[in-house]
Structures are given as structure tokens and as C-alpha cells.
Amino acid sequence: MIFNKDTAEKTAEFLLQINAIKLNPRNPFTWASGWKSPIYCDNRLILSFPAVRNYVRDEFSKNIEKQFGKPDVIAGVATGAIGIGMLVAESLGLPFVYVRPEPKKHGRLNQVEGFLQKGQNVIVVEDLISTGNSSLLAVEALREAGANVKGMAAIFTYGFDVADENFKNAHLDLYTLSNYQNLLNLAVAKRYITEEEEQTLREWNVNPSTWNIEV
């Protein structure tokens, strides 16, 4: 679910402007999963554009507090959301921790890095939601550490049905600054893509694991 439509449209436009999101239906990308995709999203680029990162920081800070109330801690999911998560924590005047994909193999064997007390209310900041699996592993690690995870806020989601189901099963609310639907609407309106390319992008979103598998 998006925080609000105005934020979703403006965020989508920023992501297209800085090429954090690239749309190429004619020459699909290959994801690490092996899926063929007409879209590629790299929200790490946001940190390199001060005006965009400040906008994302401010929208997260305002909407997190409005939607969830002020938490005790902000947690970023490594590695993509560490930078923006820390900016949000700084803006809200809150402690920050980050969550590794898995525990360290040495030292204190931490998966959650930073100071976190049992029972603290945590909002997780994420850069991108695809299936939601890796994001929810971070939530599981925080819960195992004793945190009360109030929800997750992400920059962008592809809006896959499997992600909706995964978050529902994890009993966790997800809110995003923008999503696939708003991105496509804006991309057509601003002529980043043609109506024919829009149709291709919508077809991919319905069944991304098998779309264009022979390309």
C-alpha cells in the first residue's frame, strides 16, 4: 500500500529521472533469480542525488510517524537500505540499527548490528520489495532479537501477488513511497514509454517468473 498518491507519483518521477528505474521492454534485463524483466530498479542511486535523497528522507519521516506513530528505533535492511534508513533515523532523532542477510561467521555472530533492546518498537526501512522474502527475513531476525516490529516502509514495490501474500502471512503492514502501478501511469504520461510498451510491462507484472522466458 502506498502512503499517498501524490508522494507515489513524485517518487516515481524522481526514480525515472535519475535512472534508478530503467524500463526496457525490448531488451529485458536478467535478475539474479534468473527472471527476465523489462524493468530494473537500483534505489542505491538515490543517495548520489541530494535533492532526491532529501525528498525520500522527508517523505519517509513524515509518513512513518503519521502511519505508525514514532517508533523507538529505525532498522535498515542491508545493504540497500542502510544509507536511507540512517537518514530517516537522523531526521526523526532516533537510534538506528541494520540487519544483515545472515549472522556474521565470526566475532559476536551478530545479524542485527547496533544497540537494540528487547521490547522496543521498530520500523524497518527497505529500498525495494520484489517477493518480500529477504525483507521478511530481516523482520524475523529483529523479532528473534526481541523487537516489536510495527511495520515496514519501502521506497518502491513491484506489487507482486506473492509479496502481498508473504506480508500477510508475516502479519506485517507494508507501506511504500511508490509502486509499479503509479510508475507505469507516470511513465506513459511523461512519454518514457509508449502505450504498447506499457502493455508489455503490465503483462510481465502478472507472471514475472515465466514472462519472456525464451528471450
What structural category characterises the helix and strand content? alpha/beta
SSE order, one letter for each helix or strand: HEEEEHEHEEEHEHEHH
> Which bin fits the share of residues in helices?
40-55%
Low-confidence segments, given as residue ranges, are none
Overall mean pLDDT: 94
**Rg, Cα atoms, Å:** 17 Å
Widest beta sheet: strand line-up = 7-6-5-8-9-10
Distance between the termini: 32 Å
In DSSP terms (H or I, runs of 4 or more residues), the helix count works out at 7
3D shape? globular
Defining traits:
215 residues, alpha/beta, 6-stranded mixed sheet, two-stranded antiparallel sheet, 7 helices, 10 strands, globular, Orotate phosphoribosyltransferase, Or_phspho_trans_dom, pyrimidine biosynthesis, EC 2.4.2.10, transferase
Structural notes for this entry:
By secondary structure, the protein is an alpha/beta fold. The protein contains 7 helices and 10 strands. The protein has a 6-stranded mixed β-sheet with strand order 7-6-5-8-9-10, with helices on both faces. It has a two-stranded antiparallel ribbon with strand order 1-4. Strands 2-3 form a two-stranded antiparallel sheet. The longest helix is centred in the N-terminal third of the chain and has 19 residues, at 50-68.
